[in-house]
Amino acid sequence: MELPPRPQLFDFNGVSMTNIFTDNWDNVQNFKARPDDILIATYPKAGTTWVSYILDLLYFGNMSPDRQTSIPVHDRVPFLEICAPPLPSGADLADKLPTTPRLIKTHLPVQFVPKSFWEQRCKVVYVARNAKDNAVSYFHFDRMNLIQPEPGDWSSYLQGFMEGKRVFGSWYDHVNGWWEKKQSYSNLHYMFYEDLIEDSEQEIDRLCSFLGLSPSPEEKERVRASVTFDSMKQNKMTNYTSVPVMNHKVSPFMRKGKVGDWKNHFTVAQNEQFDEDYKKKMKNPDLKFRCEI
Ligand code: A3P
């Protein structure tokens, strides 16, 4: 497969984006959500695939084994705004999903979410990850994903992250925007990657109670065992090895799955500068506390 050159970032209504996420804009904005759709929203690299797979198993884990062994998670949970012909767009895939509920993934900042999701009062699961690990994970992802902009070296990448010059814009605006939305929209469950790492059982219980699901203890245990980092790394349906634009030799998609890997990347000076900047941008004390480690 011949790949186009790496895309360039551009300003799109105040948010840094690339064309594969804006080319289908009108269709995305006019997407017709249904009341039982579930939107999984994250800033890239916050644990989207992990939570997508958890939800998919909670809803459809008992369906035919074919589903689990032959359909990659990114087809079961389409990526709403992606548009990379000749592949079908995420909005088209989502529109045609045969399952109920439809699980749909987005990285859009809250102000760009199609209005039908709010009008239909859809349930939304938002996952946030601490800023430093999120930046590190995104850096390695941009190295291996050939349809992301060229990342450059770590030092300039981090600077760009702090300035909001990454695809889907500023991490700070993203987590803050969704946090504010939660204050007025009760169907939003805001969760944290670090909590999932620390106690996946408790987080899966919280998800179930938000979604109104009551799996048996055996079902829950099956889900928990299937979504460990090691199982997902081995599983071709969740490790993205079937995606031709990702070069797993550069960096695997299922890379480390740890909290605190930033310590292997940030210099002391970078860390001080980051903390200073973080304090200024994270005005809400609760969220500031939750998103730092
Ligand atoms: P790292 O790059 O730090 O390893 P997303 O799905 O939003 O793109 O996020 C990918 C990040 O989530 C990667 O982080 C990946 O390893 C991590 N991840 C995916 N599944 C995981 C799991 N089961 N347990 C822990 N981390 C997981």
Number of strands: 6
Radius of gyration: 18 Å
Low-confidence stretches: none
Strand content: 5-15%
State the order of secondary-structure elements, H for helix, E for strand.
EEHEHHHHEHEHHHEHHHHHH
Number of helices: 15
> In which range does the helix fraction lie?
40-55%
Looking at the structure, the CATH topology of the domain at 10-131 and 168-242 is Rossmann fold
Adjacency order of strands in the biggest sheet: 4-3-5-6
User: Could you name the CATH homologous superfamily of the domain at 10-131 and 168-242?
Assistant: P-loop containing nucleotide triphosphate hydrolases
In CATH, what is the class of the domain at 10-131 and 168-242? Answer: Alpha Beta
Query: Compounds present?
Result: adenosine-3'-5'-diphosphate
Known CATH architecture of the domain at 10-131 and 168-242: 3-Layer(aba) Sandwich
